[in-house]
Amino acid sequence: MSETLPTSAPPRWMNYLALALLLLALAWLIMRPPPLEPVQPVPYSHFKALVREGTMAEVSLRGKVAQGRLVAPRPLGPQGALIQKVSTRLPDLGDDTLLPLLEEKGVTVSVEADDPQGGLLALAAVFLPWVLLFLFFYWVYQRTQRTLSGIGGAGDLKGFLEGAVKKAEVPEVNFEDVAGQDNAKREVAELVEYLRDPERFRRLGAEVPKGVLLMGAPGTGKTLLAKALAGEAGVPFYSISASEFIEIFVGVGASRVRRLFKAAKENAPAIVFIDELDSIGRTRGTGLGGGHDEREQTLNQILAELDGFTGREAVIVLAATNRPDILDPALLRPGRFDRHVTLELPDRKDRVAILRVHLRKIPVAGDVDLDRIAAGTPGFSGADLKNLVNEAAILAARDNEFQVRMKHFDEARDKILLGGVRSLVIQPDERHRLAVHEAGHTLVAHFLPHADPLYKVTIIPRGRALGGTHQLPETERHTLPEDYLFDRLAVILAGRAAEEAVLGNVSSGADDDIHQATQLARAMVGRWGMSREIGPVDLRESDEHPFLGLEIAQPRRYSEHAAQAVDEAVQALLKKAEETAREVIRAHRGELDQLVAALEEKETLVRSEIEACLGGRPGQQADEAAT
Ligand code: ADP
Ligand code: ZN
Prior knowledge:
single chain, disordered N terminus, alpha/beta
């Protein structure tokens, strides 16, 4: 959902106009009637002889040209074709004998005005269709240019000949136009300083990232953020959408990339933005058409450009994707897109902020409650909210109102939701369950002394996960103590336990939790010897490749009996962890309910907000004393 620059988007009617011109030109060429009666040019002497013979019926004089119609057709044409009309040029010196001769033979003589326009019209009739055709192809060319580069305007004939790219413009948006997304903004804000004054960084030999990957669901503002960065730094913004390469003629993509980067370097400091990187940056070797298809060539060119930076050019390349998981690893290597910035779907507070941005130029009535709109639009992206505002304004205009009212927003929201365009709509009861589930994870993580401290919890869907509880290890751990792992198990199973305690039943939402917990428990028992019954025996079912995470199947090296014992120990461990989670929830039921309410209201809670509900962390003192 990228918004194109004004210069890069020819208005839609242009398409129709161009098509109409093409059809007109073709029709003209095909249907142009042949000249009605061919006129055979003949030498003046011949013409005069025809008059003298008495075979001329009529002569019309126009300037220096005489045209005559014969009484009957005669074989005067090429290969003796029959001809009835002849024409000739009159001698410049004049011929005093012609007129008397015509009179004598009784030929009808007419004199027409010397009309040069007639000749021009005839000429135009011949050339105009070709001109139209040329214009059409020129227009197609222009369009392709713009599609590829997002830049370059009409009348760029010099560019056409030289293959140059016109200087892009500095976008008119800045960080104020990007609501929420504080983390992402902070990450790219560092680059503003650099783009404003690259020399300052160069002097010190500081390395600035040249490739930044913006990741996030469609409509979360990736394009907007890239543009805002350029606008904020006051540098030109060069953009291409990678998906468009696929539709364009072979070989154009790579050369287009080369020219785009060249132009950006010439106008540095500058931003290059590559939208929908995944469409060409997909893992190589999976596409059809062998190893040399357009996609791959273009991708290789982008890699070559990134590698080709000497560090002296102040060009920063931003690329957007909503599928970082399928990107070719070559793109993510150090020195390429090695800085990753994630844009998330906005929470309630941020939705209010986004609505505010888009309502800046729209008159709203006093009854409009942005907070209520935000509360009713969980899962909406920035682009969805922009769309909502626009729909509401249209509805208000239809009602002949001068202000947009709350009812227009309600109506617009229903329309968008019913339209089914949104992929993920959360029902209110689902939302409650989600809040309970996540609050369970959070509560248990908070109260168990060895669990990782909480960082934030959210019920905003992201990717395939519906919500998330994020814990942040205080220090990087290299060995995992048993009590830490056990608390982790309990935290993983706490979502389910909370659903059971509050709602009286569990749901399929804990699917991934159970999978994770089982894997962890299996490793604890069969690998790290953390079960008293089993003891320190390696009872892994498969060997994990230490780097690739690949499972390499191995023949089982232990007895059926041992396998059964492992299964039982794993089960016992999981049950014990679940019981621990239940106990914590039972002991702190009041706090859990508070947390659920807060989560339903704000959707995302950061550490300080969690602690406001649950109090300080009891384990903390002990932890600190221990270290
Ligand atoms: P993406 O590139 O991630 O698909 P875009 O940047 O094209 O999304 O977003 C589309 C439009 O949605 C933007 O032009 C902007 O008007 C609106 N939008 C998205 N996110 C925000 C935001 N955080 N604040 C304000 N407007 C936003
Ligand atoms: Zn869970």
